[in-house]
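Input record (Table S2, row 147):
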Amino acid sequence: MIISIGSDHAGFNTKKIIKENLEKKGYKVIDFGTFNEDSVNYPLFAFKVGESVVKKESEYGIVICGTGIGVSISANKVKGVRCALVTDENTAKLSREHNDANVLALSGRFTPIETNLKIVDLFLKTPFANGRHCTRIDLISEYERNH
Ligand code: RB5
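Output record (D-ribose complex):
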């Protein structure tokens, strides 16, 4: 499975650890940066990850900033992205089961790395539950198409 990943400076260390962990598990990772801790603007990285997922270069995206808020707002501006900001294991699973999230947003400053690694693992292995949730996802896509 191919995963697109990107962060700002506040998410850089978390991105590095998540990327190494994914590669160890056999995932292919496309890294959109940033590549050091110099201050950068998070929207630019979130847009690249979102676009990569929508273009189907990868199956899922992971975006990281200090809180996870900035990258989630930004990624959700890309048509076709359903980005979920997740800070615990329950919502990691539900973001896939109920929302069919295709991009995961994480906090590099407030969520411990062990939790972020568990979140990534759950996010990538949990399938969409379909059923009644399809209607809701379709409503979001329809809104996007018409506005
Ligand atoms: C950078 O200082 C910080 O504002 C950013 O990483 C993020 O938390 C924004 O939502």
